[in-house]
Amino acid sequence: MRMYDQLASIVSKENIVQNKPLKNHTYTRLGGNADYFVTPVTYEQVQHVVKLANQEKVPFTLLGNGSNLIIKDGGIRGIVMYLGKLAAITVEGTKIIAGSGALIANVSKQALTNHLTGLEFACGIPGSVGGALFMNAGAYGGEIKDVLLRAKIVDRDGELKVMEAKDLDLSYRTSNIPTNGYIVLEAEFGLEVGDFKQIKAVMHDLTYKRESKQPLEYPTCGSVFKRPPGYFAGKLIQDSGLQGKQIGGAQVSLKHAGFIINKDEASAKEYITLIEYVQQVVKEKYGVSLEREVRIIGEDG
């Protein structure tokens, strides 16, 4: 109980849950429990939790919106910190400042409301702002690095810093945020004034493309693999005859081969086994190594 009491002194008891099921916090609906699930409501609380984890040598994991994540069946030990309550979105002229826990799609909608162009590509991305920076999220030709000015972060030591976008090494579906152990608190985006009707039309078109092509009716982590140079992951999987391939409750989507769906209460183990099987078959048939875009964390059940 000592750890619980220490955490409660930082974030108060209503913001801590012990042995919390994590499957409700991932888009795949997979994963075991967290020892301590902590939801800070201020930046200072984030800093104090990080410092406590360091001081007590307790494992620490940051959880975003869970859209590009698989949590294993054994769950996550130590402290899992969720930033969903740090979700404020503020518009200042052509800039938008958004908390890490805000959905990047909601930031895109705020841009539309304020006649600002540049974030149309993000209208259908399901992740949080923090997650979008973490992996330099992108879609339909746009990506976060195109519009990010700077970010407020907490480092591994619990210190608050402002980082310019150029110092985050944003490139295709990656950044230095995970390697440096940064926790994104907020992001500042630089946009341009645009025509409301035009922005809305682009967002409408992208939403149609996404909904018509992606299996959104099932739990899924989104696009499982990064695009291999010179190829499309979905086409390689489709040409390998893997659409409809099922292991347990996990299935390669019939609608879009780049997606794996949780069709029938799959376990994380079944889902991961299917990912590895797809990688193996594509490598054997085409000599192409598919690199995962989705992150896998936690312990085996």
Automatic annotation (TrEMBL):
Enzyme class at the top of the EC tree: oxidoreductase
NCBIfam families tied to this protein: murB (TIGR00179), PRK13905.1 (NF010480)
GO CC annotations, alphabetized: cytosol
GO molecular function, one term: FAD binding
Catalytic residues as annotated in Swiss-Prot or TrEMBL: 173, 223 (proton donor), 293
Record pathway: Cell wall biogenesis; peptidoglycan biosynthesis
Organism encoding this protein: Pseudogracilibacillus auburnensis
Protein name per the record: UDP-N-acetylenolpyruvoylglucosamine reductase
GO biological process: cell division; cell wall organization; peptidoglycan biosynthetic process; regulation of cell shape
